[in-house]
């Protein structure tokens, strides 16, 4: 190795170490904030410690996929020995055992549920891993991850405190599993799951967010779906976008743009067809978000999906549509959400 190669190698290791320090630091912050919220709600004792420790482990893996070369590192580690593909399953199962035993909520039903959730799509991906173009079994794997999560079949896995922590824990598991299966195992191209930000992305974000607001706000006001209603909690308003980005915006963009729109583009050979189909499907999944289906929610979510998809096409990076998605949801919740009558 000559001097240039040595310097490049050392520089690469420093960047890699720095990214992992960022991942761990951010995981500690997110887990600490979640623990603080639980503590102020009256949840204390060793149960809180085990719950925060479990979240810290799952969030570290989640963020490692987003900020480091962890997905590729897993591929290098696993691709020559297929049994190693089972290690992520064991990690999730261990996380549940730690949580369940530590909080006194362990049940064999929950153990079986989380075990099946991570095992079934993994078997689909590992069995046909040699063809890196999307196939019918990839759609099955996506369904095996998305449907149990969206239909609430996993809400009774993490039962402390009273199931309130289930959503963020399930989100961390589902996102990590999806990236691992379709990047580390299947090697599907163009998912764009790594968080990278270019200077031009500021302009893209501002333009697309502005165009969406120009269309969505007048429609929302005219259809009586939204109204100007500023929330007084400033602290929550500042912190909420981080939670929205990590646990709503990015997971949904990974599913609907990084996987669904990506797969459809490769299937039909047309970004426009894929954009429209993914946007309509995105809108349809919001029909069950209220007490009853609401056509206004469907229309607004479909329009939003179109703009998020356009940002994904332009940047080939989930970071930009996820940021726009988080901005849309944050503005809606903080300034435009109607108070239930």
Would you kindly provide a written description of the structure presented here, covering whatever features stand out?
The chain has 341 residues and is an all-alpha fold. The chain has 2 domains: 183 residues, no CATH class; 138 residues, no CATH class. Helices cover 74% and strands 0% of the residues. Helix 7 runs parallel beside helix 9, helix 8 runs parallel beside helix 12 and helix 9 packs across helix 12. The relative contact order is 0.09.
Average of per-residue pLDDT values: 89
How do the helices and strands follow one another from N- to C-terminus?
A: HHHHHHHHHHHH
Principal-axis shape: globular
Distinct helical segment count? 12
List the SSEs and their pairings.
Elements: H1 3-40, H2 46-67, H3 70-78, H4 87-103, H5 108-127, H6 136-150, H7 166-185, H8 199-222, H9 234-268, H10 271-284, H11 295-315, H12 319-336
Helix pairs in contact: 1-2, 2-4, 2-7, 3-7, 4-5, 5-6, 5-7, 6-7, 7-9, 8-11, 8-12, 9-10, 9-11, 9-12, 10-11, 11-12
